[in-house]
Amino acid sequence: MLSRTNRTTIKKGTHKAEFEQQKLYDIIDESLIAHIALEGEQGPVVIPMLAWRVDNHVYIHGAKNSRLLRGLKKGAQTCLTFTLFDGWVLARSAFHHSAHYRSAVVFGSFEIIEDTNEKDRLLNHFIEQIAPGRTEEVRLSSPRELAATELLAIPLTEASVKIGKHGVNDDESDLEIPVWAGVLPYRTVVGPLETVPELEGKIDIPDYSAAYGSRWSNTPNSNNNA
Predict the structure, then answer these.
(1) CATH architecture of the domain with range 14-186
(2) Domain of life, per the record (predicted)?
(3) Residue boundaries of the structural domains of the chain
């Protein structure tokens, strides 16, 4: 179960709150992009960054000299948000139009992963998450590249999840209005792969479908002629 603190208590739309840990994991694993709040030199900012989960931690990475990571490396409190948009809800009244979505908010502070072997393992885990089997084929990071990369981790000990999937919520007095009502779904489609021009027809196209389930698409497009 997710922890319940003052910061994770959902006060608006409480019926959309979810408390299963797996719901949090699923949103993070599908999103892989966190919007991270930072107190910058010119004031507060929110920056989207690649983020991935291993067990009960979320990881981000960047250059050692990154200004964006400077405050986070010092253990400053922050907030991460992950959002998946699933569709528009079209009602019979303008007021009741809304959306279907899945969102997660994580509170806490980051710690630096110093150990080079652990850093290498976690960065490779990210590659495997987006392209299973790829770390067995590519050149892995060199000691110099690992030394130039900062890897930060935040525990998932304080988080909230909110899922909107309620459908149309028209007032009873509006039910006789002769206009279409329902849900306009959004679906993320992954693939097909687009081969770089110099490899067209020269190398087999890999299959990364195991990472994406029903979101994977094999339908060719104009950018992939292999």
Answers:
(1) Roll (2.30)
(2) Bacteria
(3) 14-186, 187-225
